[in-house]
Each structure stands twice: as C-alpha cells, then as structure tokens.
Amino acid sequence: MSELQLRTAVQSDLTALERLENRCFSEDRISRRSFRRFIEMPRDRLIVATLADELIGYCLVLMNAATRLARIYSIAVVPEARGHGSAELLVRQAEMEAAEAGRIIMRLEVREDNAPAIRLYQRLGYRQFGTYRDYYEDHGDALRFERRILFYEPSRHFLKVPYYPQTTDFSCGPAALLMAMAALDEQQPLSSLDELRIWREATTIFMLAGHGGCGPHGLALAGWNRGFQTEVWISKEGPLFRDTVRNPDKKKVLELVHEGFMHDIREADIQIHHEPLTLENMEAALHAGKIPIILISTWQLNRSRVPHWVTVCAMDKQFVYLHDPEVDTAAGETVADKQYLPVDRKVFGKMSRYGGAQPLQAAVILGPKRDQESAGT
Known about the structure:
This is GNAT family acetyltransferase. This protein is α+β, with helices and mostly antiparallel strands.
C-alpha cells in the first residue's frame, strides 16, 4: 500500500489543485491564478499531500513579512481520504516549515459549524482567541485559533532557568526573581510563600490600582538579602510611578519607601546604572552566568499597557527568550506557552520600556551567590 507523501507544490500541480478546490468548497474558492501566485511566492508555503502519485490534499500557509506570525489560509483533503490523519500531517508539516522560517505563532480561521476541524485543531493544541463575524461569502462566522510553534532548545551556553508561574495578579516581579535565583542556586525553593515574602520586601506600596507592584530597587535588595550578586539598570532617578498616584499622602508614602530602598542599597553597595540596559549588555550578562529580569510593557504580548516583570533566559541572533510568569488559564494558556517564549530582538527593544514620551527602562541583573562572609550569613 502506498504511503502518504508531503512536498512543496509545483506548477504542474495546478490542475489537480483546482480540481481539489472545486470538490471541497462551493464558496470562497482559491482560483487557479491565486494558486499559481502562491506557488511562485518564496515567502509563503503551499504543501501538497499525494497518495500513489495522486494529489489528495493541500495546506496553504501565509508568512507575514512584518511579524513573526504564520497563518494557515486554507487546508483541504478529498472526502474519501478524510479520517485517516492526512489533515493532521499537513498541519504538522505546515508548523514545521513555518517554525524553520522563524515564525513563532501559527494562526488559522475555521467555520464555527465545522466541528471535525475544530476538534482536530483543539487536539493539536490550538486555542481559540477570537471570532470573525460575517467572514465567509455566505455570511458565516469564523473562529480564530492559534498555537505557539517555535520552541527553544536549551543550550549549554546559558544556564537552565526553572519556570515558576506567579500566583497573584501583583507578584510578577517576585516570580521573575524566584526563577532567576533558582537558575543560580538549585536549592532555591519555588513556592508561593517565598513569592509573597519577596513581594512584601520589594513592593512600592502603591500602583495604578490595587496592590502595589515591585520596582527594580526592591527586587535588587530582595536578591541581595538572599545572598546573590545584584546590580540595577534604570533609566530614571527618583521614585518610580509617582506620577500615576494622585493622592498627595500616597505620593509621600511612595517617596519615603523609595528613600528607604536607596538607603539600604547604599548600605549593601549595590551598583546602580542610571541608563537603559542594552541588548548587548544583557547578552553579555547571560554569557557570564547571570540572569536578567526585565520590566516590560505587555502591549506587544496582549495589548495591555501594564508594567510587567519577566525573566530573560537566553538570546540568539533572532530572538530574546523569556520566562513570562503570567499564565492566563481563562484564555486557554498553559505553562508551556510561557516558557522560553521567543520575542524578536527588535520587538523586545520596544517591549522593554514602559510609558510614553520618556519611557521607563528598568532591569535587575542577578549574579551567582556571594561568599558567605560578604553575604553576611
């Protein structure tokens, strides 16, 4: 019995592709002219499945030139070949080729009444993140799905960083610091108790709303107090986020907390660089066996303008790899989605700043533990 073969489409496939399209779809068909253009487009991928030299399916993947996204634009398998895994193999091949092209996320649309296709995508790890209304020619709606397809292979050049998800909405900083400490000390516990202890030490008391968040000064002190080398890179002097607090009494409390942090930092002799941490300096820190934790704006990740701490685990020529401690389980995210998350270096440059005209850039670099005498233990 012949085995299914997958390959890139060629011009001689045009007639078979057109025939397949007409068999599988009554509306929203791809024309012969469009198939020809997709075959000739080097950035996109048109993958065909053949059985006994007969074309029985295809998957068309579009690669966005401006982002790291790929999109399954269309997929089709002849009716008599369905139910035998052909569609799954096409999707897997599409993901592999998109990942090899440096794409991080695969997206697709599927009719909301196409239950078999929806089950397939969910089984393959896709999660719904939106809906397109009136998407098809017959005014049917489309469900939008996505899956991360690019994953980092741990390298001997960088320390392995254990993953720890934050357990509250306000403790991303402590979670990021815990991951950095655990990378440098395998005895470091990763627990919600330690997470909240660090938050109590490092919080700036007041934030935009709700519980106070943690700034670089407090996190650096928390790391130092646990015996680690720490240094701070920050683009501004003075109390952070003071302008977001309207109440004068709260402003005064925030200023007093900052004064306390600065006193303790001077006593500990922690080095503060009042300038942004560059990608080159961050990469040098990683190669030196240190772990950066970076304050970012989450706009590039989830369209939210909230300051958020992440742990930088590795870098290469294309990406900065992050552990993001926030896992939105309500949106279908899993812990695996947030480990070694690849972010384009250019995108990371925009992400690693918070605010408008004069954005804040802040980082804490955690180094190996100091010797017992200098650590004061």
